[in-house]
Design brief:
Elements lengths: L1 H10 L7 E5 L1 H6 L8 E5 L15 H12 L6 E4 L4 E3 L16 E4 L9 H6 L9 E8 H20 L6 H4 L9 H12 L5 E2 L4 E2 L13 E3 L4 E3 L2 E3 L31 H27 L11
Helix pairs in contact: 1-8, 3-5, 5-7
Subcellular location: Membrane
Keywords: Glycosyltransferase, Membrane, Transferase, Transmembrane, Transmembrane helix
Protein name: Hydroxyproline O-arabinosyltransferase-like domain-containing protein
């Protein structure tokens, strides 16, 4: 959240940003990060109230649906991002050619279930299944029609344990974890909401970039490396980076130390370095705003 908010402020993005925070009443009482972002609070569905299924990812479509019904929204277009993203520039519907009835999204090519029995089982319009996700630009009218389908199809796919296999879903863990992603694609297909797929919106640190593309979002959901240095957000899940003064991630290599074998590899590594530097800069400014003592003045 801190990284995304910091990058949002630097990006020049028009409009406002809202965090959807899903938590139980008990979790809310213990939570002390209310000031990190403008927030809409959502009842947690991490443990499904009807089935008892533990699936925190369901909170994404559930949160969007709750926000649609309970927030005062005056925006014509909505951009949906994940918390583990860094913005590098503005994302506007006119630049990416989004329109009512034609949302724009980043490609999720690994959603192979759009091409097999999974889509045939879970939508009346399997041919309309788009392999998309990550960054979504959608007209508010479309989102109002679509949000309930996103949640219902996510629940439906999650319950379909018979088709969790990797060769059907593309999920290497065969755990149903990406059910919410399929819920999005199948929900959109159900109402024939087709996407303009744009690979220039988002990239992953560590992946080889396309020449000349100015990616607007870095999605650091997967481990990435620069030489012998690596970063995996999952390894930091239990570390309190927010409340421990001057906590930061290990610094990436200095760009001057990179071996420039070819331009794309160099650019790939520079993007990875940029991602972590932005996160650490965000953490530094956060700790400074919390009046953490200057490290040089702290007693040992």
């Amino acid at each position: 959240t801190i990284g995304l908010m910091h990058s949002f402020r630097l990006s020049g993005q028009p409009g406002n940003i809202t965090r959807l925070l899903s938590c139980t009443d008990e979790e809310l009482k213990l939570y002390d990060g209310h000031d990190l972002a403008p927030t809409h609070y959502v009842p947690s569905m991490s443990i499904h109230p009807l089935t008892g299924d533990r699936y925190p990812a369901i909170n994404k479509p559930a949160g969007v649906l709750h926000w649609i019904h309970h927030a005062d929204i005056d925006a014509e277009y909505i951009i949906i991002l994940d918390a583990d993203m860094i913005m590098r520039g503005s994302i506007t519907p006119w630049e990416f050619k989004a329109a009512r009835g034609r949302p724009v999204a980043a490609p999720y090519s690994y959603l192979i279930g759009c091409d097999n029995i999974l889509a045939k089982l879970h939508t009346r319009n399997p041919e309309a299944c788009d392999k998309v996700g990550g960054v979504i630009i959608m007209h508010i009218d479309d989102l109002r029609k679509f949000a309930m389908y996103w949640l219902l199809k996510s629940e439906e796919v999650r319950a379909d344990k018979e088709h969790y296999a990797t060769n059907i879903t593309g999920d290497i863990y065969q755990s149903g974890w990406i059910s919410e992603m399929y819920g999005y694609s199948f929900g959109a297909a159900e109402i024939n909401l087709r996407h303009r797929i744009d690979g220039s919106i988002m990239t992953y640190p560590g992946s080889t970039p396309e020449p000349g593309v100015k990616y607007r979002v870095l999605h650091y959901g997967l481990e990435f490396r620069v030489g012998n240095w690596s970063f995996d957000k999952a390894k930091w899940r239990d570390v309190d980076m927010v409340n421990k003064c001057w906590a930061k991630f290990p610094d990436p290599p200095d760009p001057s130390t990179l071996v420039r074998t070819d331009d794309l590899s160099y650019l790939r590594d520079m993007i990875s370095i940029e991602c972590i530097r932005t996160l650490n800069e965000a953490l530094y400014l956060h700790h400074k705003s919390r009046n953490c003592l200057d490290p040089s003045q702290q007693k040992t």
